[in-house]
Amino acid sequence: MRKLLIVGDKLINWILFVVLCFIWGSSFILMKWGMYETNQQPVLSPYNVAALRMLSSGVIMLPFLFHAIKLIPKKTLWYVLLSGWMGSFIPAFLFCIAETKVDGALAGSLNSLTPLFVILSGILFFKIRSNQQQVIGVLVGLMGCVILAYANYSKPFGYIAYSGFIIIATFLYGINVNMVHKKLASVTSIHIATVAFTGLIPPALIVLFFTGYFHLPLTEHKYIISTLSSCVLGIMGTALASVLFYVFVKRSGGLLASLVTYGVPFIAILWGIYYGEIITYIHIIALLVILAGVYIAYRQKKS
Predict the structure, then answer these.
(1) Is the pLDDT of residue 111 over 80?
(2) Are 33 and 231 in contact (CB under 8 A)?
(3) Cα 37 to Cα 40, 229, 236, distances in angstroms
(4) Across the strands, what pairs with 36?
(5) DSSP characters for 1-66?
């Protein structure tokens, strides 16, 4: 009976792993669905899609807000709200703006730089000491980024330039991880996510108002589909995924949870292949180099 429980426990962990990889890996194509029709005709602006994503993720977490606020110390509330901006709000806009030019597969590959930027931002801004292994891992990952740029050198300059928005977004993710670790270690992740996401409802509404979203013919089929895609992105790809990841870390520990970094870009690439994005062997090599850098940086030495 005990063996069955252990097997069942492991099975649930791997199910969570696959679900998280699929949700986060599909986020990049959902951004495309929010901004474009299947014939690539634009529907919503990247600002609309990003704002809808933040609004829906905040609304879905509203029922848990009162309980979360009671458990968060007042002196750390500012950092929780700042975490929402650094880790969600600004990156959401940067990713959507970038995907007006770059493919979802490339966005998913560049997103895998996040663990390396956790180390780099820790060194630069938080005085976190690093070892030689971590530095080598960061350099290898950045080399993979250079290879990705080379793989796209024949495309318009804007394609490569807009990739920079994704790199900035992943750097902000890295800063946010270190800030949460340093300033919010005593607050549970689920409470941080609840307050951070609900705190983004007002700015998201402001962006939607000033970008003219509410004046669009929202009852037309294409606007309904784009709005639903953006909201699914917020509810599933931001709010629910954050909660599931927190549960996943608690159940399986950090090692298996860290493997999500490796699974997400491959799901994004599969979506890219399905939608006819041009993916070459150089793209795959670049992704493998980035993931090798992540592995080197986070590999635990045997005692």
Answers:
(1) yes
(2) no
(3) 5, 11, 21
(4) 42
(5) -HHHHHHHHHHHHHHHHHHHHHHHHHHHHHHHHHHB-TT--B-S-HHHHHHHHHHHHHHHHGGGHH
At residue 155, the pLDDT reads: 76
User: Nearest Cα to 51, choosing from 114, 95, 110, 83?
Assistant: 95
Angle between helices 241-252 and 2-35 (to 10 degrees): 150
Q: Are the C-beta atoms of 43 and 230 separated by less than 8 Å? A: no
State mean pLDDT over 112-134.
90
Cα–Cα dist 12/242, whole Å: 17
| Dist. CA 248–CA 13, nearest whole Å | 7
Give the start-to-end residue ranges of the domains of the chain.
45-298
Find tokens 């997103």 and name the residue: 111
Cα 109 to chain center, whole Å? 11
Tally the residues of the chain. Answer: 303
Mean pLDDT, residues 86-110 taken together? 94
- Tell me the pLDDT tens digit for each residue of 209-257: 999 999 999 999 999 999 999 999 999 999 999 888 888 877 766 556 6
| Nearest in space to 168 (alpha carbons), one of 93, 226, 228, 234 | 93
pLDDT of res. 300: 67
Which conformational region is residue 37 in: left (phi greater than 0), alpha (psi within -120 to 50 degrees), or beta?
Answer: beta
Could you report how far apart the first and last alpha carbons of the chain are, in Å? 34
In terms of phi and psi (left: phi > 0; alpha: psi -120 to 50; beta: otherwise), the region of 73 is: beta
Structure tokens at 166: 């994704």
